[in-house]
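Researcher: Re-running this chain for the archive, since the previous output was lost when a drive failed. Same request as before.
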Amino acid sequence: MSKIYVGNLPFSVTEDSLRTLFSQHGVVESVALINDRDTGQPRGFGFVEMPRTDAARAIQGLNGQDMGGRALKVNEAQDKPRGGGSQRRW
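Model: Regenerated structure tokens:
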């Protein structure tokens, strides 16, 4: 299973519309759109999980594709660094 980062999404996108777009390239296991924790408004990015071979095909086919007047940024999701707070360097 691969987790795909999808950025530069139009704020009007829904989980269903993103699932439909990615399902053209294979089996979609899950879709998650990220909202701002304080306002609840969309942040313009999300994640899609697909089997590894389908994910590679989706990344290849959808990166840079126009959706609602915006060029999608599609790539393999990177793990978020662990740890909280700011990273201070003395």
